[in-house]
Design goal:
Layout lengths: L6 E2 L6 E2 L9 H5 L28 H4 L8 E3 L5 H12 L6 H9 L2 H7 L3 E4 L4 H7 L3 H13 L3 E2 L3 E3 L11 H8 L3 E3 L11 E8 L3 H12 L5 E8 L4
Parallel strand pairs: 3-9, 4-5, 4-8, 8-9
Antiparallel strand pairs: 1-2, 6-7
Bound molecules: zinc ion (ZN) (2 copies).
Length: 235
């Protein structure tokens, strides 16, 4: 197929042959930095080399009451990861979802969190799915499942009302914006003790994932974690 439809790296435009990644060249993949070991115990924020290893919570977690046990992100937010997320969400980049899953798979600590869990993609309202034609978190989660097989993907949450995009909103506005925006999908029956991982592409203030966790807790689930492709570093 590559002879008829040649593939190019979505970052640098390099022509691609039969590579492990479908739309990223090896050189660009090498520039993606996996989240390290010096992280916030709660949200997994990567302190990098800036802070001493003694620090346990980041500023975001010191002033929030997150409802998940812990959250982990696979990679650091850099110029490249920012660009591929933008393509995925706003440039009809659903074809990139498989590469997202393959990048995440390189981070063993991150993948360990997903073991034997039920991945719950953060749902989009149908109006946004209609416009974008796909839910990016759901398609990445499905590829992760395909690559790893020791996890399930279930649409346990539904978006109950339409909320404007979180981009550009302040932290308290974001919280207000997603308040009671999710509900349990009554068609799915699973054990309340199952390990659940709420999954999204990016963790910013945490308002969206936290609201999902609240709804799950309200329905008796307690073994709840979060996982994202990447996360921002400030509130
Ligand atoms: Zn490239
Ligand atoms: Zn944190």
């Amino acid at each position: 197929m590559d002879y008829i439809f040649p593939r190019y790296c979505c970052i640098c435009g390099e022509f691609l042959r039969a590579d492990h990644f479908r739309y990223l060249c090896e050189a660009c993949v090498k520039k993606i930095i996996l989240t390290g070991e010096n992280i916030c115990v709660k949200c997994g924020h990567d302190f990098g080399e800036i802070m001493a290893k003694t620090q346990s919570l980041c500023p975001r977690c010191l002033c929030s009451k997150f409802q998940f046990i812990s959250l982990r992100s696979a990679v650091r937010l850099t110029h490249i990861t920012r660009r591929i997320i933008h393509q995925l969400k706003y440039k009809h980049g659903e074809y990139l979802a498989e590469d997202f899953a393959k990048i995440m798979q390189k981070n063993n600590t991150f993948m360990a969190l997903l073991q034997d869990s039920v991945l719950i993609p953060v749902p989009l309202h149908w109006k946004r799915v209609f416009k974008r034609e796909y839910n990016q978190s759901e398609i990445i989660a499905k590829f992760l499942q395909k690559l790893s097989s020791n996890m399930e993907v279930l649409p346990l949450l539904k978006r109950t009302r339409y909320t404007p995009p979180q981009v550009g909103l302040r932290i308290h506005e974001r919280r207000q914006n997603v308040k009671k925006a999710f509900s349990i999908n009554p068609k799915i029956k699973i054990d309340r003790n199952r390990k659940l991982v709420v999954f999204d592409d990016i963790f910013t203030t945490g308002s969206t994932i936290n609201e999902c966790c609240k709804e799950l807790r309200r329905h008796g689930f307690h073994n709840i974690y979060g996982a994202t492709f990447t996360q921002t570093s400030k509130n």
